[in-house]
Amino acid sequence: MQTQYINEMLNIPELQICQILTMSADEVHIEVTPVAAKQCCPICRSDEFVILKGNNGVRKVRHLSAFEKKVYLLLSAIRMHCSKCEAGFVWDYLCVGPKRRYSHLFRERAAEQALGSTAAHSARMQQAPATTVQQMHNEFVPKECELLTEQAWKQAKESNGLVLGVDDFAIKKGHTYNTGIHDLKGEMMLDLLPGRKLEDLRAYAQHHPDFLLLEPKAVVMDLARAYHTWISECFPNAIRIADHFHVHGYVIEALQEVRKSVQHTLAPRAKARLKANHRLLNPKAESLAPESKKCLGELLSYSLLLQRVWEWKEAFTVWYDYSSSVEVAKLGFERWCKQGEQLDHDEVRSTLKTMRNWQEEIINYHHCRWTNATVEGRHNRIKAYQRRHYFMRNREHYKAGILVECNRNRLH
């Protein structure tokens, strides 16, 4: 292989290949030298009076693997002297930091591989010690988080028609929660704050004036009263939208409660079949496979009440998907509520009460058709991250890791 092609493969333009010293089954040792003849003095920033004074031996630096072999670069520690400043210094290589044994490209690759998996996995891929890769990852994440956060906030402030998404996720379910703030239109997570209570949210807004400078057109969130109170205080002109996923969950929950009450009245075989296939009641009928549709029809034939409640659930899905305007949505919502009142069931009545209490926020979806679907997807990433980094004690490292994990698509 010609040395110019090796130069391109190494992707280090400041260096040129002298020779390949050794090549074994696992390793390649390549002697390299700087392309430039001299380097500027770190004091006067000029190379006019710089002279070479020999070298202090050779540095062995690990670089990116090639052809399934570990690549080591042998760099001369070149000594130089500036006769103007009377300063002595050693050649500063851009591809590797001072006193480092791994090149910048190697460190970045190892850290990026550890983002979606673990440091141990990246260490196996790069054939390096796991503790070394973990250290690289811990150095890489805060720097990358700072760049991504700056980019996300700049994009949000300049956005025309900004749409925010606010939702919480559990650190320890039932005990500790975090709240994420997302730019839905810009497809980035803006920030992460501890807690989900109203006092936690107000404290965040008080200590982060940049948040109050945003001008969102709409904010999507679930039906937690604390979120709606907080957003109405921070952004009184923003449209508050009740998230489609959470609202639909109330209707499905009512359907399943009706299914449980009906289930006890059935014969043993029908009871067992309804219980085993109860999840078929949740999705839209048109999304089911032919065999599943056939099974669903059999389940609905067991009870007239169950069939009517299922039709009521389907009508709600149709209302969400096909209301062409806010005025049409208001009429359709009222018609759907009357359909539910005719069912005369406690669970349905309870759900209708919730729906009427949040009628404005639910209908607002038809002003601005945004949902927190991408936020729920990020929550899956966060849960996987938390399992990989269980019991991480440093809050700043934890926050930086999550922000990088959720904004990985914007990594350079």
Automatic annotation (TrEMBL):
Top-level division of the source organism's lineage: Bacteria
Pfam families on file: DDE_Tnp_ISL3, Zn_ribbon_ISL3
Organism the protein comes from: Paenibacillus macquariensis
Domain Transposase IS204/IS1001/IS1096/IS1165 zinc-finger residue range list: 39-85
Residue ranges annotated for the Transposase IS204/IS1001/IS1096/IS1165 DDE domain, each copy included: 164-400
Lineage: Bacteria, Bacillati, Bacillota, Bacilli, Bacillales
Name of this protein: Transposase
